[in-house]
Amino acid sequence: MTKLYQEAQVCDFKQATLFLEGATYLPTDTRNWEKLMGNRLFHRKNSNFFVGEKLTVTELDSLKKTGMEIKERLSGP
User: What is the pTM of this model?
Assistant: First the structure.
């Protein structure tokens, strides 16, 4: 989880990108992160980096329609 934490702090994406793995382990310090969708979607402020957990199919479809790229994990296998 330390590697995930470190990568999450420096990720810089051109478009909004949602990762579906590891939200529970990421810091949600309100100075750097904001919580959305009933504390199941986390957004690193001033970035295009989002992490989600337990999002419904309807919520995921809605996010895709906004143009958000959805990935299963932040780094390799």
Answer: 0.79
Q: Which residues touch 77 (CB under 8 Å, ≥6 apart)?
A: none
Half-sphere exposure for 76 (CA within 13 Å, toward CB):
0
CA distance 43 to 51: 7
Q: What size, in residues, is the chain?
A: 77
User: Where along the chain do its domains lie?
Assistant: 2-71
Paired residues of 41 in beta bridges: 36, 52
- The tens digit of pLDDT for each residue in 5-57 reads 677 777 778 899 998 876 766 666 778 888 888 888 988 888 898 988 889 99
